[in-house]
Amino acid sequence: MTTVRNIAQGVRSFTSNAFLVDGERTVLVDAGNDFDAVERIESAGTGLDALVLTHTHPDHVGNVGAVVDAFDVDVWGFDPEHELVDHAIDDGDTLTIGDDDHLALHTPGHKNDHLCLYSREGGILFAGDLVFANGGFGRTDLAEGDREALVESIDYLLETVDDDLEAMYVGHGPAVETDPLYHIELAAQSARMG
């Protein structure tokens, strides 16, 4: 059974959440920044098969080098031109994270290379910085930010996920394990209002 742990839990620095997903294929979704990710993965006792990036903002990729060096894993992300990305993930690709296949959704607006990863069978969504708990959504005031594209990406996410969604793991703040679809719908409304 897939287990999801936020190895950045309790870190007091400029970092994203970083999710260690244990199962048939143990994957780290985002590496976080400015904490000892390697020690936290080692203490989980799971090993590591791959590192997948939702996007390449510094708070999500700062620990990539250390994780790659320690576990000799490849890095997967949307933009194969980025120096940290070994393998491209395109919109519509499927990849195994933990025990479940996840559909990759290209969701720009916060950053051009942003991905969400959705497992219908597992009921799990890794939302990166597209949407957050309580209707929050990703910033659009940074380089490559685009509010209109963000709204379109949230709509794309809403068209893809369904009522089987049980848990949404986000780039910042708490995971949403009660009615995550409602939180995405709220984000769609909030993003339109700004």
Question: What is the strand content?
Answer: 15-25%
CATH architecture heading: 4-Layer Sandwich
Q: From N to C, what is the helix and strand string?
A: EEEHEHHEEEEEEHEH
As a percent range, the share of helical residues equals 10-25%
What can be said about the biggest beta sheet? Answer: 6 strands, mixed
Query: How many separate domains?
Result: 1
Show unreliable segments. none
Using the CA coordinates, give the radius of gyration: 15 Å
What is the CATH top level name?
Answer: Alpha Beta
Number of helices: 5
Instruction: Enumerate the strands of the largest sheet in spatial order, edge to edge or round the barrel.
Output: 1-2-3-4-5-6
* Shape category: globular
Arithmetic mean pLDDT: 96
Task: Give the termini distance in whole angstroms.
Answer: 40 Å
- Name the CATH superfamily classification: Ribonuclease Z/Hydroxyacylglutathione hydrolase-like
- Topology-level CATH name: Metallo-beta-lactamase, Chain A
Structural class: alpha/beta
How many DSSP-defined strands? 11
Could you please describe the fold and organization of this structure?
The longest helix has 14 residues. The protein has a single domain, classed as Metallo-beta-lactamase, Chain A (4-Layer Sandwich). It has a six-stranded mixed beta sheet, with helices on one face. The protein has a five-stranded mixed beta sheet with strand order 7-8-9-10-11. Helix 4 packs antiparallel against helix 5. With 194 residues, the protein is of the alpha/beta class. It has five helices and eleven strands, in the order βββαβααββββββαβα.
